[in-house]
Design brief:
The chain has 16 helices and 15 strands. By secondary structure, the protein is α+β, with helices and mostly antiparallel strands.
């Protein structure tokens, strides 16, 4: 919390470290609420029916259901029992995990499937069983890794392919084998090309162009403008530049995606930059016709990749929680951050928060969500992708992530904090305690400025895991990124104003 604010000595929740079992255990109802339920009779007949049904389940399924419904307790007993009903009904349609099929797989394949579906446990046992079924069905379509082809490659080539496909393990063995197949096929196409003016060898980080070359600097500038993070634009060929170029080639379908800085790749970079600038101009022109944009325009280079519709409209009309949620749910992602790939696979020592998509590849979040962890995973239902950190301002807790492969559904409008009115309706959407797409309702209760940063204070609920999620007005326009709450206060929740991400 910025120093000097009222309640500075109060405890402020700003971190989202959710290790195994931490923050995701079913929470007991507060004593006072339990007492009122007992006195009112609401905790008798219906609750006993649901709890009896839950108690008859195996412990693993019971724990998953109680975890999936834990947050609904805070919406009252009816919402909690309704959640239990839905979970039990869904489980009856898919009562058992595909244990027999899993047992027939190799240990590596089984571990990959269990790891890929681990996060779906928090949506309940039916969702977990469904994920296992899909993984097994996908593996049956692509059952074998290209082991024989890999064994014929040199150790360097094999290691590069395994490294390039390592993150695809998080999507299950079928996705991993598919990645290996594509890498082997791409390498084979290089070797089959006739020799001519084009260089055939694969220039990895140890096979570099001359340091300081104008071509490398030109490529670095283009990659940076396109958001591929090649490192400093210094004309020095290194691992970051090589990796950025491979990602660009893969995204553009350039075969082989080998990191070779050929004349054809330079031409593709120039064409992509031209298209990027034309799209930016078109978007700016369209937005100028639609509504005035924020001033000053987003000029600093580190935020220049941000493109979205920013409005200075006067107020909003409350359309209700259901319509707001329907409009924004596709743009809210859960962020899982780990120090190592092994930590993510084992679901240990993780930080968890939320993020809001503002373009086809970029998301806004808080820097404290990442907590210095380098391995970032985006989750939305069954969709999983890895992400990288594009820009960060730790002092103001603003971070921007870039999805690696998925095309995201961006928020349609982002509203200027100057037009936000105290007392208007506000909604939070995020993943508190890892519970995806949870919506809360309240009002904007204050607009605060501290150390040059604008914060929106609201009574819309947030908790650990909500950080990086969205604060929306009554029409579903993004007005803030939920950041922290004052624990010892009553509904004192704060979000960084969304338009803060468009200035240096």
């Amino acid at each position: 919390m910025p120093s000097g604010w009222p309640g500075e000595r109060a405890r402020v929740v700003m971190r989202d470290d959710l290790g195994v079992g931490q923050g995701m255990k079913p929470r007991a109802l507060p004593t006072a609420v339990a007492f009122l339920l007992a006195c009112s009779g609401l905790g008798d007949a219906r609750s006993q029916s649901e709890m009896d049904a839950v108690s008859r389940l195996p412990k693993e399924q019971r724990d998953m259901i109680l975890s999936a419904c834990s947050l609904s307790k805070y919406s009252g007993p009816a919402a909690y029992y309704s959640c239990l009903d839905r979970q039990i009904a869904a489980l009856q349609k898919s009562p058992n995990p595909p244990t027999d099929q899993l047992s027939r797989l190799s240990k590596e394949e089984r571990d990959l499937i269990l790891s890929a579906c681990s996060l779906s446990k928090y949506s309940g046992p039916a969702a977990y069983h469904s994920c296992l079924d899909r993984q097994i069905a996908a593996l049956q379509k692509n059952p074998l890794a290209p082991t024989e082809q890999l064994s014929r490659l040199s150790k360097e080539e094999r290691d590069m392919i395994l490294s390039a496909c390592s993150l695809s393990k998080y999507s299950g063995p079928a996705a991993y084998y598919s990645c290996l197949d594509r890498q082997v096929a791409a390498l084979g196409s290089v070797r089959q090309e006739p020799r001519g003016d084009r260089k055939i060898d694969r220039p990895g980080p140890t096979s570099m162009p001359a340091a300081g070359s104008a071509e490398v600097a030109k490529a670095q500038r283009a990659l940076s403008e396109l958001g591929y993070d090649p490192g400093p634009v210094d004309g020095q060929w290194g691992r970051r530049t090589y990796s950025a170029l491979v990602r660009f080639q893969s995204d553009k379908g350039i075969v082989p995606a080998d990191g070779h800085l050929s004349a054809a790749t330079l031409e593709a970079l120039e064409a992509a930059v031209g298209q990027h600038r034309a799209s930016a101009r078109s978007a700016a022109t369209a937005e100028t016709e639609r509504a005035p944009s924020i001033t000053p325009a987003p000029s600093p280079a580190k935020w220049a990749a941000m493109k979205s519709r920013v409005l200075t409209s006067e107020g909003s009309t409350d359309q209700g929680a259901q319509r707001v949620f329907a409009a924004v749910k596709g743009s809210i992602w859960t962020v899982i951050a780990g120090k190592t790939i092994a930590d993510v696979q084992a679901v240990r020592n993780l930080a968890q928060g939320s993020a809001v998509a503002v373009s086809g590849r970029l998301l806004l979040t808080n820097c404290h969500v990442l907590d210095g962890r380098a391995v970032l995973v985006l989750v939305q239902g069954d969709a999983i992708d890895t992400a990288s950190l594009v820009s960060s301002s730790p002092d103001t807790d603003r971070c921007i992530l870039r999805a690696k492969t998925l095309t995201l559904l961006p928020i349609r409008f982002i509203r200027s904090s100057k037009s936000v009115q105290i007392g208007e309706r506000a909604y939070t959407v995020g993943a508190p305690s890892g519970l995806e797409l949870t919506i809360g309702e309240g009002i904007v209760s204050g607009v605060r400025a501290r150390a040059g940063v604008t914060y929106l204070q609201s009574s819309a609920p947030i908790s650990s895991g909500s950080s990086g999620g969205g604060l929306f007005d009554g029409e579903g326009k993004l007005i803030g990124i939920t950041t922290f709450r004052i624990r010892d206060g009553q509904a004192l929740n704060f979000a960084i104003a969304a338009d803060e991400y468009w200035r240096d």
